[in-house]
Design a protein that fits this description.
Number of helices: 2
Helix content: 10-25%
Distance between the termini: 62 Å
Length: about 150
């Protein structure tokens, strides 16, 4: 007996959804699951004593990061070129007193970081090129440009 309640399957054939009905269903799924996917991308990550969240490509992510910024002590911004185009996929290493305390890869141009009170040495690597900076509690817009 074949189920007539299965959304993706026509009850009288072996064909899956087609044409405008399929497009409508895919569009509806994108609307319902799209925000959840963005929220997952902006989930707080924990590496050792450091917690962070990265993102900020679209306006929605920028607003989400702005609303979360009060929960973080520091921030990094990654750009490229004279026009300051946003970068993601930057490898970040945080060290304190010469000892690595966290290492992660950015999923957007801005990373908000919460860490124990200290001064951190940052090495950020994009396309094999390292940039170095120092990050202190309260510095929320340290900008690195390649």
């Amino acid at each position: 007996m074949q189920s007539t309640h299965h959304i993706w399957h026509h009850p009288h054939s072996q064909k899956s959804c087609q044409g405008s009905l399929c497009a409508l269903m895919v569009g509806a799924l994108a609307v319902f699951w799209g925000p959840a996917a963005h929220a997952a991308d902006l989930a707080r990550q924990i590496v050792g004593p450091i917690s962070y969240v990265c993102g900020g490509v679209g306006e929605d992510e920028q607003q989400a990061l702005k609303s979360e910024s009060k929960d973080f002590d520091m921030g990094l911004l990654f750009t490229e070129g004279a026009r300051g185009e946003y970068l993601s996929d930057v490898a970040i290493t945080l060290s304190r007193n010469g000892v690595e305390v966290a290492s992660f890869r950015s999923t957007g141009p801005r990373c908000l970081i919460k860490a124990p009170r200290a001064t951190y040495q940052v090495v950020a690597t994009y396309n094999g090129v390292d940039k170095h900076t120092t990050l202190r509690i309260g510095e929320r817009n340290v900008h690195l440009n390649w």
